[in-house]
Amino acid sequence: MNKALPLLSTILAWPLAAFFLFGAYGNAFISEEYAAAYAAWGYPDWFHYVTAALELTAGILLIRSATRAFGAALGAVVMAAATLTTLVNADYGHAVAPAVVFAVSLAVLGLSLALRRNRSR
What we know:
Blueprint: H1 4-28, H2 32-40, H3 47-63, H4 68-88, H5 96-119
């Protein structure tokens, strides 16, 4: 097994976890600007709490290597939804950040799955 994989997984996962934890806080205590964005995208008033809960869960799961793949997968789903929401609503200025986080989530997921496969051999 390549000894750099666990280190690379951790190097990518920790900032990703921080992003999701910070995002969870931001969605739980939403600004007027983001509340207006959620409304413009067609989501109900309470939907930001769902997003916050999902981001909090993803952030927590990303911290430990044993649960990292689950956190990365959940984070990828959340960011895919965010990217699609912004693209469908032609809000291209808000599409870049979730698309980048989606890609990083997929990278962490791939690394985590490769590490699990190598450990099970």
